[in-house]
Amino acid sequence: MDFERYPDSPYLHLTRADVIEAACGVDIVGTVAEALMLHSAGQTALPEEAYLGWTTPRGDSARLLAMPGALLQDGRPPVVGMKTINASLGNPARGIPRSQGFTLLLDPETARPVALMEAAYISAMRTAAVTALAVRHLAVPSPRKLALIGCGALAQAHAALLLRTVPTLRTLALHDVAPDRAEALAAYVASLPEGAKVETVPAGSAREAVRDAEVVVPVTTVTQGYIEPDWLRPGALVCHVSLDDLTEAAVLAADTVIVDDWSLVRDDPRRLLGRMHRAGTLLGPDGAPRDGVTARPGARRVDAVLGDVLAGRHPGRRHQDETIISNPFGMSILDVAVADRIHARAEAAGLGTRLTL
Ligand code: NAD
Questions:
Q1: pLDDT: is 92 or 274 the higher one?
Q2: Which InterPro entries match (predicted)?
Q3: Whose CA is nearest to atom 4 of ligand 1?
Q4: Minimal CA–CA distance to 26: which of 305, 356, 259, 351?
Q5: Exposed, middle or buried: residue 219 (CB in 10 Å: 0-12, 13-18, 19+)?
Q6: Could you tell me the distance, in angstroms and rounded to a whole number, from the CA of residue 222 to the centre of ligand 1?
């Protein structure tokens, strides 16, 4: 074989517009539910993700995430891929999204790339789909008020998906440290087909937004917790998407804590639950502290993974007044599962550009 000239190796390149068009034909919530249940049945491969942080030349925090994953469903070829999603906190001020990247799918036989697509749309929608499933299985019946704290890209994805999947919602409380982002989100909500059914209420503080909300979704970029346990109404579900908004006291006071994958949460030293595990205040689902760490008095256990709730192995909500935290670390297998369906739709619809290595 000629080292300098590979045989043609075509792959499909999908821009964000292609991804969005193809996604119209994909049931993202259903795809994510299937992937969560495969994960709970042990039919996935989910290696630890790689994290590289740096300070940009202009002084902003930036990071690269590389997240490989595979679905290993019995009787079907594996679905293998990787998301790399990369962010600079300075981007919104430049008028560009904070994070963006690629999701890559490989041929399961040759391990060659078959598709490369814009990652941030799928990432936001699969994350919102996890929240939609958490609401379906863990919220009080017929929730009416949703609080979105942080009004960026993830908040938009949540508003779009939750208005479709939670038809009882009547109030969206919106809070952002940048009030113009909350205003822009309110305008976006008003432009949605379901937007007429809800009232958007700007909230001057996170505490005001959270008051009386049955569903609370923090989607900020904070690294220090601020949501205290007494801010939450009895029966609240907190979908802790941005992972660092709850205080340790709020986690310890919750009746039930659900994660998407314990090993990702456990192995991460940066986010709240991983830090609590290192400090001996959070025990794994098996009730064990971290190796070499002594459990502190008052430490609490993680109750279950979301896939177990979906598969009926954990009851989910047990009573009306239970406060529940769903802490979705974010699993590559969800991006890979959704990307695989989007790739199939794009091939069928003739979307994208064929490139070669
Ligand atoms: P973004 O930059 O588009 O939006 C974040 C918004 O939060 C901004 O409008 C910012 O002004 C606001 N904000 C920052 N600090 C705040 C505070 N203290 N109070 C209120 N608002 C505040 O970011 P995004 O793409 O929407 O992502 C939001 C978060 O979701 C990020 O932390 C990201 O890492 C996380 N995320 C989690 C998952 C997951 O699976 N768990 C997946 C994707 C993104």
A1: 274
A2: NAD(P)-bd_dom_sf, ODC_Mu_crystall, ODC_N
A3: 152
A4: 351
A5: buried
A6: 8
- Residue pair 116/104 in contact by the 8 Å Cβ criterion: yes
Alpha helices in the chain (DSSP H): 16-23, 28-40, 120-138, 153-165, 179-191, 206-210, 248-253, 262-267, 272-279, 306-310, 332-349
ipTM of this predicted structure? 0.99
CA distances in angstroms from 320 to 138, 141, 219, 234, 308, listed in the order given: 10, 9, 25, 8, 20
Q: Work out the average pLDDT over 200-227.
A: 98
Q: Is 151 in the pocket of ligand 1 (CB under 6 A)?
A: yes
Nearest CA to ligand 1 atom 1: 152
Choosing from 151, 221, 231 the residue with most ligand 1 atoms within 8 A of its CB, the one to mutate for a pocket test is 221
Atom number of ligand 1 nearest to Cα 157:
26
| Choice from 39, 240, 242, 268 to test ligand 1 binding pocket (greatest atom count within 8 A of CB) | 242
Whether the CB-CB separation of 225 and 127 falls below 8 Å is answered with no
Closest CA to 207 of 183, 184, 233: 233
Mean predicted confidence (pLDDT) in 165-182: 97
| Atom of ligand 1 at shortest range from CA of 130 | 40
Nearest to 39 by CA among 77, 68, 70: 70
Residue of higher predicted confidence among 4 and 334: 334
> Phi then psi for 27, rounded to 5 degrees?
-85, 90
pTM exceeds 0.95 = yes
DSSP string, 219-265: ----SS--B-GGGSPTT-EEE-TTSSSB-HHHHHH-SEEEES-HHHH
Q: Are 31 and 133 in contact (CB under 8 A)?
A: no
